[in-house]
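Anyone able to model this chain together with 2'-deoxycytidine-5'-monophosphate?
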Amino acid sequence: MLRITIDGPAGAGKSTVARELAQILGYTYLDTGAMYRTLALAALREGISADDEPNLATLLSHLDLRFERGRIRLGDEDVADELRAPAVDRIVSRVAAHPRVRAAFVSRQRELAQGGGVVVDGRDAGTVVLPDAECKFFLTASLDARAARRHREMRSQGVRASIDDVRREMAERDSLDEMRAVGALRVPDAALVVDTTGLGVAQVVAELAAACRAKGA
Ligand code: DC
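re: yes, here you go
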């Protein structure tokens, strides 16, 4: 049972590809972005600023976050849809930049990945969380392609936003994710880099699945 990591910027198709790859291989999908988003949502609800590291760390230590059948729950509440709200998008990179927040989530992620048979998607999955994972991928795509995907996803959820705003916010989020001191987005050593611009999900999943099978998945 291998450990598979998929990193890359927002909108590169990581979560869709990771979910399908996990399904094909019979592995568990671990969406680490959803963990940071859940903390951002809880902070919004509690009125805690995205820049308030001590209170975010306290909030995180009490956070009753669970994955159940592919949905994420905060206590008894299914928050999977609310995690994609624009208000969460706007602050999540700032929430995720705090070293204490990252350290706590990274250790939870390592516990969840123990034993293998996991597909972990994120920004630092192959660099920090599981640097010795057997199979590492870095998915990327042009900013226009990524913004168009995110815009389509938002419209299908009934969220109205202009494509220009989506592109601008995405570029801001990318630079925060790339520039932060801890767990910055970068290509992991030995990762297979796949540019998904113009590729369909099925093509990308097939390429990744073939690479994983070649390593014994
Ligand atoms: O993959 P996503 O869009 O759901 O991620 C949401 C935010 O969380 C994104 O701005 C980057 C951050 N993130 C992170 O810092 N580290 C991770 N392992 C996953 C996500």
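The chain has one domain: 3-208.
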